């Protein structure tokens, strides 16, 4: 009896979200173009727009790897991940029955499969994800995230930052987490990312240093004079508004990396001290596991290269058997080497005999070599090096 009760409670805690059907009028971003074209164009460049498994090789490869290693159906894994990656999905959990049907080959016609193939979720994190969140349950357990932390508004009710907006196309409602407290919206998904064994590999909410800038200040830009809608309302002109951008630049955007960290070099008793300063309110790397900062050292003598050396700041993960794995299958990890929020990290390395100068360049990679080869990723972006900063000092 007690066991049953616990299971029943767990089920309501974890699977509390009720899907709400979205009317065709609001289903995808093309429906917003007539009046918000500038926003749709920006959002299309963002990685929120690539969060469906068909549009992100790394995400897709990870779901397949998790399915293979846990022997859970791919559709079962995809439904789990959809909680944050494709949250307008109409099936929010799958059970044993789904697994048995999948093994027997009947999974193709399942509700879960239909929900995963529906065009409602094909845009990933689109307008009717953020702007249809009616309630955020920050009171829920820390591990309850994504779809399970929110309640959707009725179809056609857009929540936004303004309390005096009016639209002929949809209803509008104001919410605090669209203006005063937008971090709360970001933390619906950008927090407490955990493996199938409940190992937390990143928690941006925990590491975030309160009091400084908000997530939107850097990832949607500062407020600028502009318009929210192109529709002519006030005196036949679009209404002037203070607005932000919707491109959500982040770790996949090279322009965001340049200068993201500061670099300082010092020579002390034949050792080079490389200080990496992070003035942002969260760790870097953060957001996801297996990201990497690489420091490349080039030792020179009279402008000729004598030697090169590479230092890496990344985290490696181990599975139940102690083997190298991806974050989502981890039970443990190596030390977290990311540069902490508002602090610095100092690396130290010996100088090279005969060298009179060293140049240090910091780069960022989205996936370290270990995970890159476990998943056999093919697209160039996953091995690309994003330039962060470069400095050199004399060794004489
Ligand atoms: C990841 C969440 C997220 C997604 C996805 C998103 N928005 Fe927003 N949107 C916000 C936030 C946060 C604000 C408030 C920004 C501010 O402080 O002004 C906002 C503001 C707006 C505004 C008010 C004007 C402005 O720019 O401040 C409009 C209109 C809007 N969004 C439309 C859209 C449309 C259309 C889409 C889809 C193409 C979209 N949004 C996708 C989070 C999102
Ligand atoms: C026929 C024109 C039209 C279409 C189509 C349209 N909107 Fe709007 N929307 C408006 C107008 C007008 C406003 C108010 C602008 C203002 O007050 O500055 C608005 C405001 C908003 C706001 C801000 C609300 C607030 O309270 O801050 C959001 C969010 C929004 N729209 C989302 C969407 C989304 C998502 C779609 C597509 C599913 C969409 N809109 C389609 C005309 C439209
Ligand atoms: C519904 C869940 C959800 C919400 C809410 C959400 N995000 Fe995201 N966000 C994601 C996911 C999932 C990705 C990864 C998409 C991918 O890479 O395929 C992402 C990616 C990003 C990226 C790109 C990171 C990179 O590595 O390039 C940025 C920046 C970002 N989000 C900022 C925000 C901000 C700021 C907010 C709050 C205004 C927010 N997000 C709200 C789920 C969410
Ligand atoms: C002071 C500016 C600033 C603020 C505030 C900020 N970020 Fe960032 N964020 C950055 C920089 C700089 C990077 C690294 C460069 C890049 O992403 O291109 C970054 C990276 C990220 C990434 C990608 C990390 C990775 O390695 O995959 C995510 C996701 C993200 N931020 C989300 C957030 C969220 C959520 C918040 C609010 C809790 C937030 N950021 C607040 C500046 C900021
Ligand atoms: C708690 C919400 C949440 C859940 C559940 C979740 N993710 Fe994510 N995931 C995120 C966010 C937020 C990001 C973006 C972080 C960033 O870019 O730094 C992300 C990023 C990723 C990335 C990196 C994508 C890229 O473009 O670099 C992969 C891969 C990934 N998730 C795989 C998965 C898989 C597989 C599952 C299911 C087993 C899953 N995630 C479940 C929130 C979640």
How would you sum up this structure in a few lines?
This protein has 396 residues and is α+β, with helices and mostly antiparallel strands. Helices cover 24% and strands 24% of the residues.
How would you explain this protein's 3D organization?
There is one protein chain. With 396 residues, the protein is an alpha+beta fold. It has 2 domains: 2-243, no CATH class; 256-394, Immunoglobulins (Immunoglobulin-like). The chain has 12 helices and 18 strands. The chain has helices at 2-14, 33-45, 57-70, 74-85, 96-103, 111-117, 127-130, 183-186, 204-207, 215-219, 254-257, 369-375, and strands at residues 133-136, 150-152, 157-160, 171-174, 193-194, 200-202, 224-227, 240-243, 262-268, 271-277, 292-301, 304-314, 317-318, 324-325, 332-333, 344-350, 357-365, 386-394. It has a 4-stranded antiparallel sheet, with no helix packed on it. α3 (57-70) packs across α4 (74-85). The longest helix is centred in the N-terminal third of the chain and has 14 residues, at 57-70. The chain is globular and about 70 Å long. The model is unreliable at 1-14 (pLDDT under 50). The protein binds heme C (5 copies). One heme C is lined by residues 47, 56, 58-59, 62-63, 66, 77, 80-81, 83-85, 145-146, 189-190, 192-193, 250-251, 287-288, 328, 366.
In N-to-C order, the SSE pattern is HHHHHHHEEEEHEEHHEEHEEEEEEEEEHE
**Tally the helices: what do you get?**
12
Proportion of residues in β-strands = 15-25%
Secondary structure tally: strands: 18
Alpha-beta content class: alpha+beta
What does the overall shape look like?
A: globular
Strand order of the largest sheet: 12-11-17-18
Portion of residues within helices:
10-25%
Mean pLDDT: 93
Radius of gyration equals: 24 Å
Largest sheet: 4 strands, antiparallel
């Amino acid at each position: 009896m007690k066991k049953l009760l616990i299971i029943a409670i767990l089920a309501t805690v974890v699977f509390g979200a009720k899907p709400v059907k979205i009317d065709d009028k609001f289903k995808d971003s093309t429906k917003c173009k007539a009046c918000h074209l500038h926003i749709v164009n920006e959002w299309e460049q963002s990685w929120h727009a690539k969060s469906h498994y068909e549009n992100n090789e790394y995400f897709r490869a990870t779901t397949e790897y998790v399915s293979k290693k846990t022997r859970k159906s791919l559709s079962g894994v995809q439904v789990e991940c959809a909680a944050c990656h494709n949250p307008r999905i109409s099936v929010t959990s799958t059970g044993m029955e789904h697994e048995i049907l999948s093994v027997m080959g009947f999974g193709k016609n399942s509700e879960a499969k239909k929900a995963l193939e529906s065009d409602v979720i094909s845009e990933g994190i689109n307008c009717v994800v953020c702007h249809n969140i009616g309630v955020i349950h920050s009171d829920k357990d820390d591990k309850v995230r994504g779809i399970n932390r929110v309640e959707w508004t009725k179809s056609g009710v857009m929540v936004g930052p303004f309390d005096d907006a009016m639209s002929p196309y949809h209803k509008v409602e104001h919410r605090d987490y669209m203006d005063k407290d937008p971090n709360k919206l970001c933390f619906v998904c950008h927090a407490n990312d955990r493996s199938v064994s409940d190992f937390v590999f990143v928690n941006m909410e925990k590491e975030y240093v309160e009091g400084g800038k908000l997530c939107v200040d850097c990832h949607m830009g500062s407020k600028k004079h502009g318009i929210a809608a192109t529709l002519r309302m006030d005196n036949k002109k679009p209404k002037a508004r203070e607005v932000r951008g919707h491109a959500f630049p982040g770790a996949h955007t090279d322009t965001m990396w340049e200068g993201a960290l500061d670099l300082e070099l010092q020579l002390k008793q034949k050792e080079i001290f490389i200080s990496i300063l992070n003035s942002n309110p969260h760790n870097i790397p953060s957001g996801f596991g297996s990201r990497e900062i690489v420091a490349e050292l080039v030792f020179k003598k009279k402008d000729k290269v004598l030697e090169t050396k590479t230092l890496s700041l990344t985290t490696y993960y181990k599975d139940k058997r102690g083997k190298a794995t991806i974050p989502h299958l981890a039970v443990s990890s190596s030390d977290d080497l990311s540069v902490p929020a508002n602090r610095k990290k100092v690396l130290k390395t010996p100088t090279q005999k005969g060298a009179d100068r060293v140049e240090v360049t910091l780069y960022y990679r989205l996936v370290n070599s270990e995970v890159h080869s476990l998943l056999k990723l093919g697209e160039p972006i996953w091995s690309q090096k994003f330039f962060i900063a470069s400095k050199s000092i004399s060794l004489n």
